[in-house]
Amino acid sequence: MKRPLSAIAKISLSIALVSIMTMNSAAANAPRVSKDDLRQMLDNPKVVVADVRTGRDWNSSEFKIKGAVRVDYRQVVSWASKYDKDKIIVFYCA
End-to-end CA distance of the chain, in Å? Predict the structure, then answer.
């Protein structure tokens, strides 16, 4: 027999769904950078390249961008504030 969701569970689920939809929408609207464009940007001190791959994917990869910082996309609040607002942050995951 299935138990009905509590009011708190329903609210939490609704917030999670809205957050996911918002992130997906923001990601769809984010500008894309080709690898050639990024290569030209690497010497720019205003550019931060953030590798958001998970531990296993990052550890097993032989391909890493020199100078990239590894960040946990789930912990954006903890690391984003250390960068000036005029920085261009380029995220990559592959």
Answer: 43
Q: Render pLDDT for 47-58 as a digit per residue (tens, 0 to 9).
A: 998 888 888 888
Q: Give the closest residue to 38 by CA, choosing from 15, 66, 79, 2.
A: 66
Longest dimension (CA), the chain: 61
Judging by beta carbons within 10 Å of its beta carbon (0-12, 13-18, 19+), is residue 16 exposed, middle or buried? Answer: exposed
Would you state the structure tokens that stand for residue 8, as one six-digit string? 């708190």
Rama region for 2: left / alpha / beta (φ>0; ψ in -120 to 50; rest): beta
Encoding tokens for residue 3?
């138990």
CA 29 to chain centre: 14
Residue 80 identity (one-letter amino acid): A
Give the domain ranges of the chain: 32-94
